[in-house]
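Is this the right way to post structure tokens for a design question? Let me know if I should format differently. Anyway, here goes:
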């Protein structure tokens, strides 16, 4: 992507950052610095991404943890590689046994919705396949933050308190006590600027580093995890952990106006972003700030998302193939439904027959798009005593309806919200991008790609532009700085528009683009959080 084709029409407290030798963009300044430290030590972009991801489990535990899942897209030596480090449901779980415990739907917190965590396996796989430094060297900054402590940043402190107040009301039971002991020691939640330490977290990271992740799945940590879950009548076992390996996958893509947009295949929801882009590809968008542009974007996204929720699950269990959902046949049939007024979407009829994101790049052209999450902020509310391991609650997204595509089954991976994105042009990498935040993520990817490709915004402007989010039916929420005249025009087209009181629900993104001729890197970071870019 030629840098002089991009401009910035939006005012921002941040400017696009330029660098030559390396860059890390993420939602917490100390984590970005951890990645930069590894680059300066001679590590590559993959090493920097691992260091940043591990550091984020310490310095942003409100969004991710050691017991979370991860996905990555890695550009190296002229090829894009995909890594799916989401874990399956335990082998002892089933719809019948969950319902026998009195649940009509999958619970949100506790031991039941915990699936096999994939993040440590992601770090180990990335390091083994592409890293230059040892995992012990790469995890050292994260271990240091956990041992020595660090001061809470503003958005982190706000989200920490929100999570604590919510958990204090809803988490009752002995199994939740380690969470409060870890994140609210002595019954006190840390405030903005307070120093928080987690020595158990440091010890766990050391063990993962020294064993290349083996201790987490087939060693002492695995025993601690399984024993605690089993003690509290959960399903995750030592056998489930021992059988797990992160999976290398072929990325999927959509060609959009001269660029290829890449995502991880299902069980991730990146397919939704590609489906929406394929629908939008049939329209011409000459100006960004028009009611026609927003109307068609919203309609394309609601159709794609409705279908994504109907069909996306573990790819081995999908009722409709990914290649069909990416076909022009599909896109054309859905595009024809878009008229001058808002529609109420229904699923496609097939033809008969709390998350963290980071981007990293180095001076040699290696680039990484990496996302990691515990889900819904602090996740399940389960922390393994003395380890700092906060476990995710990804199983919550399983359906207990046996006829649903995403029905719970033992050994099955659930529909997954976290998605990394990547952009290429011809044989060149443009770079990694991502917008974290639950079901906002494919909507954020869709908007960022169009901001970049259709409207020529630079990375910071593409992130700063006011966002919208489709919720259901005709309901759309927009940010408070979304132009009022466009809100009124969309209402006249039948959209039910609500203006959000804050920016908390609109995702948090990062972008790094690379000029193929000069190697110059340009990065944007999220103004809606404590975002930071570290570069040299």
């Amino acid at each position: 992507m030629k840098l002089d084709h991009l401009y910035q029409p939006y005012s921002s407290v941040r400017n696009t950052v330029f660098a030559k030798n390396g860059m890390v963009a993420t939602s917490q300044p100390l984590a970005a610095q951890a990645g930069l430290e590894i680059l300066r030590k001679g590590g590559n972009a993959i090493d920097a991404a691992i260091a940043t991801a591990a550091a984020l489990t310490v310095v942003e535990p409100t969004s991710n943890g050691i017991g979370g899942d991860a996905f990555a897209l890695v550009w190296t030596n002229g090829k894009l590689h995909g890594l799916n480090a989401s874990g399956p449901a335990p082998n002892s779980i089933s719809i019948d046994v969950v319902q026998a415990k009195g649940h009509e739907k999958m619970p949100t917190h506790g031991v039941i919705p915990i699936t096999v965590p994939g993040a440590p396996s992601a770090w180990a796989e990335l390091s083994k396949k592409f890293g230059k430094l040892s995992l012990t060297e790469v995890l050292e900054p994260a271990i240091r933050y956990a041992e020595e402590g660090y001061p809470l940043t503003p958005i982190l402190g706000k989200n920490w308190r929100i999570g604590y107040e919510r958990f204090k009301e809803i988490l009752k039971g002995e199994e939740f006590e380690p969470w409060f002991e870890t994140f609210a020691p002595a019954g006190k939640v840390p405030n903005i600027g307070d120093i928080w330490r987690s020595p158990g977290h440091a010890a766990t990271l050391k063990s993962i580093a020294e064993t290349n992740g083996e201790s987490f799945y087939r060693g002492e940590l695995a025993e601690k995890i399984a024993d605690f879950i089993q003690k509290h009548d959960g399903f995750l076992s030592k056998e489930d952990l021992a059988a797990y390996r992160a999976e290398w996958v072929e990325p999927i893509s959509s060609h959009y106006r001269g660029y290829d947009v890449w995502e991880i295949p299902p069980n991730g929801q990146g397919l939704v972003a590609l489906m929406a882009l394929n629908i939008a590809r049939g329209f011409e968008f000459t100006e960004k700030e028009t009611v026609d542009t927003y109307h068609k974007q919203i309609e394309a996204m609601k159709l794609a998302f409705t279908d994504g929720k109907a069909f996306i699950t573990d790819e081995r269990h999908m009722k409709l193939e990914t290649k069909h959902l990416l076909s022009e046949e599909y896109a054309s049939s859905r595009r024809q439904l878009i008229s001058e007024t808002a529609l109420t979407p229904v699923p496609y009829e097939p033809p008969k027959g709390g998350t963290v994101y980071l981007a990293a790049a180095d001076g040699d052209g290696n680039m990484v798009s990496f996302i990691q999450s515990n889900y819904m902020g602090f996740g399940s509310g389960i922390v393994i005593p003395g380890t700092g391991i906060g476990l995710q609650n990804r199983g919550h997204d399983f359906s207990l309806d046996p006829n649903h595509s995403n029905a719970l089954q033992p050994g099955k991976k659930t529909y997954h919200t976290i998605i990394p994105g990547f952009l290429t042009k011809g044989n060149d990498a443009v770079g990694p991008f991502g917008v974290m935040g639950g079901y906002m993520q494919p909507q954020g990817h869709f908007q960022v790609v169009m901001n970049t490709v259709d409207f020529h915004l630079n990375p910071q402007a593409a992130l700063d532009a006011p966002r919208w989010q489709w919720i259901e039916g005709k309901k759309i929420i927009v940010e408070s700085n979304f132009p009022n005249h466009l809100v009124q025009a969309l209402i006249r087209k039948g959209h039910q528009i609500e203006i959000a009181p804050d920016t908390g629900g609109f995702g948090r993104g990062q972008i790094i683009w690379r000029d193929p001729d000069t190697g110059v890197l340009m990065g944007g970071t999220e103004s809606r959080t404590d975002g930071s870019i570290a570069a040299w």
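Format looks fine. Someone answered above. Worth noting: Residues 22-248+356-397 form one domain. The first strand starts at residue 17 and ends at 19.
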